[in-house]
Amino acid sequence: MKIGILSRNENLYSTRRLIEACEQRGHEYKIIDALRCYMNINSTQPSIHLKGEDLVGFDAVIPRIGASVTFYGCAVLRQFEMMGVYTLNDSVAISRSRDKLRSLQLLSRKNIGMPITGFASKPGDIKDLLGMVGGTPVVIKLLEGTQGIGVVLAETRKAAESVIEAFMGLKANIMVQEYIKEAGGADIRCFVIGDKVIAAMKRQALPGEFRSNLHRGGSASLVRITPEERKTAVAAAKAMGLHVAGVDLLRSERGPLVMEVNSSPGLEGIETATGKDVAGLIIDHIEKIVSSPRTRTRVKSK
Ligand SMILES: Nc1ncnc2c1ncn2[C@@H]1O[C@H](COP(=O)(O)OP(=O)(O)OP(=O)(O)O)[C@@H](O)[C@H]1O
Ligand SMILES: [Mg+2]
Ligand SMILES: [Mg+2]
Q1: Ligand 1 site, residue 213, Cβ cutoff 6 A
Q2: Is 211 annotated as a binding residue?
Q3: Which pTM value belongs to this model?
Q4: Residues that bind Mn(2+) 1, according to the entry (predicted)?
Q5: Which of 103, 252, 259 maximizes ligand 1 atoms within 8 Å of its Cβ, making it the mutation to test the pocket?
Q6: What ipTM describes this predicted complex?
Q7: Mean of the pLDDT values across residues 22-42?
Q8: CA atoms within 13 A on the CB side of 112
Q9: For a surface tag, which of 6, 138, 221, 283 has the fewest beta carbons within 10 Å of its beta carbon?
């Protein structure tokens, strides 16, 4: 096969691992920096060029699209789709997953468990907003936050009000969420490929910290997940229309709650924590789909 890896940097762990997996299986590959691509969308034959080269003959494209390049990255991916190339996750599903509000709305429609969550931009009545999500303690998040930055635990109503006011001053959209105390500063990352969780790790926050992000000092370890967790993770990926996804769960008294669904989940943490060849499993999945045209249908989300 000829596989395109949409990635801005071939030295990134995930990209290097995908390259290795392609090489081990004798596939041709090309690293494609989406931002450097230019496209002809007007012709009857859509095309993509990169440094003067016509990008043709690809069997599959693996999108590794960073949050900051979602818009143009998805446009390039869409162009590959128009050319009939199989894309591991399609552009619609990726843009959908990048919108946290839309993602949680979609998951709730499918009755997938999630923390009680309020969204607001300039809440006219902060007390009422807090009441809506069951009162403090609450977790307040900037919608555009990442790596745990902009995620605050407010234990009292006073604290919650000041944080919300401060975020409002930044003209940011915010999420106000029920605090899942019993998760104990841990979350579970389920790596979904197709309709299976192929690896799972537990990320545990440092003592005194509730955010389990590895960037915040959290540590990752192999974890056994329950059948219910497995089912929830697969259902969440499916609801988002993603073939490959990193589904983050909190373990709560009322079962697994989905925090978010990632469309370009990193490989380093999960491979290190579980010892699994996740990159290889991704390429195996592509081989299976590309070689059997009947299964090459897109996952649809209503
Ligand atoms: N409602 C909650 N209850 C308990 N803990 C939470 C809750 N929301 C978030 N956390 C903890 O805080 C961490 C960071 O939150 P979250 O994943 O929502 O933000 P982020 O990591 O900054 O965003 P992104 O994952 O998009 O980069 C989570 O991994 C989890 O450990
Ligand atoms: Mg997170
Ligand atoms: Mg994320």
Answers
A1: yes
A2: yes
A3: 0.94
A4: 248, 260
A5: 259
A6: 0.97
A7: 96
A8: 28
A9: 221
